[in-house]
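Rotation project, supervised by the postdoc (A.L.). Task for the rotation student: set up a whole-complex structure prediction and record inputs and outputs verbatim in this book. Inputs entered:
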Amino acid sequence: MIRVLLPLAVLTAVLFTISLLVGPANIGIGDSLSALFRGGDGPMPMVMREIRLPRALLAVMIGGSLGLAGAAMQGYLRNPLAEPGLIGVSGSAAFGAVLAIQTGLAASFALGLPLAALAGALGGVLLVMLLAGPRGTSLTLILAGIGISALVAALTSLVLNLSPNPFAASEIVFWMMGSLADRSMTHVWLALPLMLIGWGVLAVLGRGLDALTLGEDAAEAMGFRIPHLRLILIVGTACVVGAATAVAGAIGFVGLVVPHILRPLVGARPSRLLLASALGGAVMVLAADIAIRVILPDRDLKLGVLTALVGAPLFLHLIVKSRKELI
Amino acid sequence: MSLLAFSNLSVTLRGRKVIRDISLSVGEGEFVGLIGPNGAGKTTLMRAALGLLPYTGQSSLADMSAGVRAKAVAWMPQSREIAWPVSVETLVMLGRLPHLGGGQKPSSIDQAKVDDAITRMELDPLRHRAATQLSGGEQARVLIARALAQDTPLLMADEPIAGLDPAHQIATMQTFDRLARQGKSSIMSLHDLGLAVRHCTRLVLLKDGQLIADGPPVDVLTPERLAHAFGITAWYSDTAHGPVYQPLEVIR
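Outputs recorded:
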């Protein structure tokens, strides 16, 4: 177990440091670190503390959240194709954000957009819980999630469709691609409390997810209350994914691919996958966010675009691999 | 001491009465075979007794809190689900979950129970294989071992021997037999009447959600009841090799 977690933790730390050192303002390694830790006046501490630090922190927080929520969702649904967005949280958060951009709420004060996105995530998750019912099966949860996702996607398209202002429309489209550029410590402080709650909530799921390996009936007979597990899963996922989408937009494929890659390394045990997947998610988002700054520094390449570009072929590779195993 | 007692248990699913007023009590050292045609309510009866289904009436197991019940009875459902490619040993260890607190590592006692269950089900050569890559019969044995590892006074299993080869069917029946002699009881639903007669200490016959007979195997499987419940005839003899029971023909 430690053979998996330790390299991932080291990799996270290394990438976090690199993330702090990469940027358009060419600052030497020594200078950047001294500016970060000692502070002082001038532009350098400002760049380090107000621009690069929140960006690196958010990459870790969001990547960890998506990885953790993805592992929990796959464990609960016993399906390697599940991802945290399945229950409609990211879609409804995006819809909240889009409304904020369209109505001008986002422009009128700094936290308008993330707060509206959080409100959207909350509304979406309440609807899903209402639809799925207290004793429904995992299938009803999936169906409710798909239904709500489709509904908010349609509403988002409607807003775009009716948008009289092309600038607002293009802002919406770019926001939805997901990015960590130009985020501040305010975004960190907004997302962190919710994510802390979500991490704490999802972390206790481990034993129940292990038991669910044997199916719902067997897990229930081993003393695990399935409706209770499901409520924890929904609340935890809503907290972390809602907060992540609110501050960074939609970043896809992390919650799907990372648990999938790491599963064989932890002996496929759902409880062990949780922490490994959180670290793996942090690694993936940090790496992707560094890559977009290195590959196309002049063009504002969006993080969500890159994770999807990397994630989709990776996923296809996994499919081909599993196809061979089946034969 | 009774390990399971329920009285006037009834289950209504989608407006249809699936189980009607069944009362049953199982004491120590019993190996109860639950028999009956398809759709008689065997699975429903066991799930309701465990409290996994809404029911009316009284059930000692369903009245327990979830944690206490998990130490009183192990349940092996009919659907043999193994969601992830975990090793056989890991899967059997899942049976110890009710005995472990959150974050608690398995002790040497837990490991011993798991080793014992693996040996009983002759799974030692498969111990480190991924459970999902085993054959259906092997998976069934792994899941039986998982239930054994839970080490409860009562074990309920829904058609555990279906799909096993003859040697492992007999070996599994003998395992439950031995458990009964050690004072642990089991309730097993099964369709092989020959094995049921040879190994079970008691048979419970269901038809259309009703309990038709309950008692020693030979007393339960009279020709009249066989004709009424299953619509078959059978040949029976108490031989030097023990009781032999062979279903013969369908009565049209």
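Student's summary: Chain A touches chain B through 23 residues (CB under 8 Å).
Supervisor addendum: Chain A has 15 helices and no strands.
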